[in-house]
Amino acid sequence: MKKYFLPVAFFAFVSVSLRAQTPTKKFEPVSFSQVTITDNFWKPKLDKVATTTLQACIYQTEGKTARIRNFEKVARKQNEKHEGIYYDDSDVYKALEAIAYSLKNHPDAALEKKADEWIDKIAAAQLPDGYLNTYYTLTDLSKRWTDMEKHEDYNAGHLLEAAVAYYNTTGKRKLLDVAIRFADHIDNTFRLQNRHWVSGHQEIELALMKLYHATHNDRYLKLADWYLEQRGHGYGKGVIWDQWKDPKYCQDDVPVKEQKEITGHAVRAMYLYTGAADVAAATKDAGYLQAMNNVWEDVIFRNMYITGGIGSSGKNEGFSKDFDLPNEEAYCETCASVGMVFWNQRMNLLTGDAKYVDVLERSLYNGALDGLSLSGDRFFYGNPLASSGQHARSEWFGTACCPSNISRLVASLGDYIYGQSAKGLWVNLFVGSHTTIKVGKSTIPVKMETNYPWNGNVKVILNPTKPVKYAVNLRIPGWVKGTPAPGNLYSFTSHAASAFKVSVNGKPATYREENGYAVLDRNWRQGDVVELNLPMEIKRVTAKTDLTYTNDRVALQRGPLVYCVEGADNNGQAWNIILPENTALEAKQYTVLNEPVMAIQAKAPVIITSADGTGVQTQQKEVIAIPYYTWANRGKNPMQVWLPTKVKEVKINSGN
Amino acid sequence: MKKYFLPVAFFAFVSVSLRAQTPTKKFEPVSFSQVTITDNFWKPKLDKVATTTLQACIYQTEGKTARIRNFEKVARKQNEKHEGIYYDDSDVYKALEAIAYSLKNHPDAALEKKADEWIDKIAAAQLPDGYLNTYYTLTDLSKRWTDMEKHEDYNAGHLLEAAVAYYNTTGKRKLLDVAIRFADHIDNTFRLQNRHWVSGHQEIELALMKLYHATHNDRYLKLADWYLEQRGHGYGKGVIWDQWKDPKYCQDDVPVKEQKEITGHAVRAMYLYTGAADVAAATKDAGYLQAMNNVWEDVIFRNMYITGGIGSSGKNEGFSKDFDLPNEEAYCETCASVGMVFWNQRMNLLTGDAKYVDVLERSLYNGALDGLSLSGDRFFYGNPLASSGQHARSEWFGTACCPSNISRLVASLGDYIYGQSAKGLWVNLFVGSHTTIKVGKSTIPVKMETNYPWNGNVKVILNPTKPVKYAVNLRIPGWVKGTPAPGNLYSFTSHAASAFKVSVNGKPATYREENGYAVLDRNWRQGDVVELNLPMEIKRVTAKTDLTYTNDRVALQRGPLVYCVEGADNNGQAWNIILPENTALEAKQYTVLNEPVMAIQAKAPVIITSADGTGVQTQQKEVIAIPYYTWANRGKNPMQVWLPTKVKEVKINSGN
Question: Locate the Non-reducing end beta-L-arabinofuranosidase-like GH127 C-terminal domain: which residues (chains A, B) (predicted)?
Fold first, then answer.
């Protein structure tokens, strides 16, 4: 057994600002902790997460399962048995992180008390050398750090993220100190000993970068970078490598900087590249960016669903081969879409290019949001794009990564709306909210008003106390444009695309287009109102023919939302509808369960069965399509995102 | 490390008869080594196995993969690396076993030479203490016998089976001696040391019983019994228990004698119960039989496909919940159907009840035979009952259990045709063949002539040198009867079932029905001809409504064969056909690839698409159904076993 070097001064980094700037980022995101969300679409969802989803997480984590009990058992030191799976600690941390974000927009004393109570239990379970893992501590501590697949550093990463988030919202640092001790333990055990270690489930890299930015201690940056450098050299040991013989599964077949293709487990990949982008931004290491450009294009051009979901195969919870994107069998784990949001945010910061936010927005409003029921207490682990009616949301899962992941994403929405730099303001997502940005020495209150995604009008109201010159960068979503970017898997065949409009104080404004943003560079005064008007036409989307699953099929999109046809709105069926080229499509006020939405309405050929079941015929019928994220909230129902434009053949369903 | 007790006299059991009789069996099977197959249906398949399938196995085992090389590496002792997976040794043994059977009906000097060459390499890889396993010997011998999932005794079991089979055909005992040494090593290491061990993949139990019957050394019976007794007491250690926490997976959650339900991995279950039946027959232990009656009914009444396939779920390669038998997603591993043949044979011997042979025949002619292409060199691992055209047979598999398993089953067909006891002859399968049975002191040549399964006429010609009184037991297949047995999942709604006929020397014979057999108890003379005439009507099969996947659907069966509709015979489609109640069905001479078969022909409503894809209508069309085992031999094609009797709704297929 190695001896652990414990630095004496690990409490030394307290007073430093928590929002660090790294030089190569084009701008910094405004933290959730500085953004108040008032949005018509999102605020009720944030409230639902606080009042319902997090309650479900707490009930499952401490009431129904042993996740909290395991920490208590470690603290009691009475040789009690570990219950559950070795990665269960992470669910506690992720729920805590979600609570941390939630407290910002939905303060709740009881929730904060619960978090403090958990934090006490977690702290009590940390070993004197900083190690913190209920599985190994309760089973056989001598086996710790032997199987790299056993999620020890994955758990650690989620602890770090929770600690930073909780500190950011509350200023309380008990959990942060626990995280620092554990991070130091890991650094001492591996990097400082030149002991090789490949994380079997990436996560700690991005988490260490958060800790680095929170503490300004560059040992965490070094450790994150070291973790990245460990991959692809055959250092892996444990079940992935020795038993499954599948280093690709955790992107360990090739050094990160040499990776060109997306492979393996989707969530692992997303967390890896998020961490790599964070490290690249801090170290200015161009190698990671080059690799990620290639990998990103491999995702977007050949391996992403229209919903922004990724990882089509349930077998490896990940990628199979290019264009293998089946609809009904789509795995599309909720966590992978959450990971797409993380990674694309980092790529946007690193490059200043809005195309990454287009993907982020696609994953957020569709693939990720679909993981959470409208009621807030049911979840999808996988998010298929078609269903024969077999799919239903669950209360929970044995492997429970998704519920707390979608909770923390929704609760942290504030992180993704605004950006700021010395030169100006970036508006990435259109969400009713207010914040205060720093431009040079000026502090500028900013307010956004919108009914997005139902309506394309976005007002940004600027309130500098005295006039100040800076640039306002308004993202012009990729879906506004009629023509797809080269290489893109999906393209729009829209009815007469109209242009977006930008005005200031009610008058058309001059702007330049740069990196996907409309840039308004001018002297701003208190009360200036910037208006962006995005045309909300219904788009017919087609995919490249390489994607054979969607040949002769069309999907519908309006704004950032992908639509689907569900049986609940269409006489119980969804697979008997044809949507020929010339079908007229209309937006319509509609309600799914209690959710007010814009539905899409059409008159289209539908195959009808005779009452006695002996024959079929085609009739023109009213068809309703609803936003994809709202499906599966009214019982088991057939559903389709991609509708046929013509019939090649039919399959008869009988009784089941 | 334990010391191994090596018995001095392990060569002592050589001269004893290899076909042992155990008292509680109702009769003994006639061994393949005593049966010459001349059958129109089966002989070409046995020849194809010899000339093509086994060549593919050899090519894959020694040419394309490292399976034989691993044995060579052990013998060379040069610290070379193991290649492949820890259970790969078993594929060598299973191919050898298949060769052994094949040499009986299709002698082939080159094949026998290859087998001898492999046996030399295997023998050279055995350690002085009897241990034989290339994985542990080439990786870390100190880890042997630590993870009960690592298939050490599974591999051993297949070695034993191969050794006994090869000895039975050739009389050569080199491999048998290797097997005896390994079996003794295991017995010394565990049973004689009172050291607990749960086999993570059952197989060795039934193999030890073969070794016991071959050697008459009852330590192997004791060891087999001991292996059974180890289960269900929490002794499991290794990945199944410690990591997956799923002892049910290998039927280790409950002691074998207390098991009531079928659970877990299907092949493991079949091998377990086969071994348990073998042990029960030898020890007269009623506990096993009682348990197996319950489990068998759970399989047949609630968990078996109409093809005799079992294990619907790919997730655990096994059973999920009662009546969960999806058609297109059916896993139905070929090996599991092979296991059904094994287990049901043992149950038939133990009880004398023909109902087990009904199941055996169903699995053999459908679920198992489907695993082998008509060309003999392509394989199915899973055998779905419906396909949208995505399924294709493979040349080989990473986990390559199925090809050699179906090879050894077909090649050993002789084991399943006849039974004998002091009282008479049993005819279980209808296969053109000849053998010689022993009835009391008499030796009676027996010959069977038939065109089964295409035709229901079966002639059995008896040639005792002098008249002798005994019983001829002719199995009357369950499918002859119009009404299903109580509890059965499937039932026939046949057009006017006609009765079977039994005659002797051309005249109607008197017989009694007993245990599903027509028993003719009389004085037999040389040249007596017993004729059984089975009505070969086409049966419409329906399933209990609990099996929701087949509600309002019908399957077709003729004789033992289940039929399917494949696109290749029906304008490329198989999901657009309706088969209403009153559809006239006719048998028709037909050819699938080069296989002459009886197809089923009908005129039925078919949903036709207009050329421009805008609409559909129903038309009466000619429909062809082919035997299920012949599908997927003419490229990728949609297929269905269960056809709708009426349309509830349709699904539109578009481009893909």
Answer: 539-644
Confidence of residue B1 (pLDDT cuts 50, 70, 90): very low
For residues B470-483, give the mean pLDDT.
Answer: 89
Which residues does B218 contact at the CB level (< 8 Å), separation at least 6? B212
Residues of chain B with Cβ-Cβ distance to A239 below 8 Å are: 239, 243
- Sequence-separated (6 or more) residues with CB below 8 Å from residue B128: none
**pLDDT tens, residue by residue, A467-522:** 999 999 999 999 987 666 678 899 987 655 678 999 999 999 999 999 999 999 99
Domain positions in chain B are 28-416, 418-476+499-533, 538-644
Cβ neighbours for B152, distance < 8 A, ≥ 6 positions apart: B133, B136, B144, B145
Nearest CA distance, A614 vs chain B (angstrom): 6
d(C-alpha A137, C-alpha A144), whole Å: 8
Closest CB from B572, B613, B647 relative to A652: B647
CA distance A142 to A1: 8
- Per CATH, the number for B418-476+499-533 is 2.60.420
In this structure, what are the phi and psi dihedrals at residue A27, rounded to the nearest 5 degrees?
A: -160, 170
The conformational region for residue B631 under phi > 0 = left, psi -120 to 50 = alpha, else beta, is: beta
* Spatial contact of A634 and A568, defined as CB atoms under 8 Å apart: yes
Over residues A382-411, the mean pLDDT reads 94
Distance of CA B510 to the CA centre of its chain: 34
Q: Report pTM.
A: 0.81
How far apart are alpha carbons A208 and B92 in whole angstroms? 49
User: DSSP letter string over A396-463?
Assistant: --SS-HHHHHHHHHHHTGGGGTEEEETTEEEE-S--SEEEEEEETTEEEEEEEEE-TTTS-EEEEEE-
Of the partner residues A576, A614, A647, the one whose CB lies closest to the CB of residue B646: A614
Given a cut of 70, whether residue B4 has pLDDT beyond it is no
Q: Which residues pair with B619 in a beta bridge?
A: B606
* CA–CA gap between residue B367 and residue B380 (Å, rounded): 10
Q: Per the structure block, which two tokens stand in for B544?
A: 């209990």
DSSP designation for A629: G
pLDDT > 60? residue A597? yes
Q: How far is the alpha carbon of A639 from chain B, nearest alpha carbon, in Å?
A: 11
**Quick one: closest CA in A to B571, which residue?**
A649
Contact A416, A341 (CB under 8 A): yes
Residues of chain B in Cβ contact (below 8 Å) with chain A = 239, 243, 388, 548-553, 572-573, 575-578, 580, 605, 607, 609-610, 612-618, 644-656
pLDDT at A2 exceeding the cut of 70: no
Domain A34-385+399-416 sits in CATH 1.50.10: yes
pLDDT in tens, B261-285: 999 999 999 999 999 999 999 999 8
**Element containing residue A338 per DSSP (H, E):** helix A334-351
Distance between CA B20 and CA B215 in Å, rounded? 9
Q: CB neighbours (10 Å) of residue B142?
A: 8
Q: Which two tokens stand for residue B337?
A: 């159907």
A243 to chain B: which residues are within 8 Å by CB?
239
In this predicted complex, what is the ipTM? 0.74
B457-478 burial code (b ≥16 CB/10 A, e <16): ebbbbbebeeebebbbbbbbbb
Domain made up of B28-416: CATH architecture: Alpha/alpha barrel (1.50)
- Residue carrying the six token digits 């203490």: B129
Phi-psi region of B190 (alpha: psi -120 to 50; beta: other; left: phi over 0): alpha
Name the closest residue on chain A to residue B619, using Cα atoms: A615
Residue whose structure tokens are 């599985």? A135
Fold of A418-533: Maltose phosphorylase, domain 3 (2.60.420)
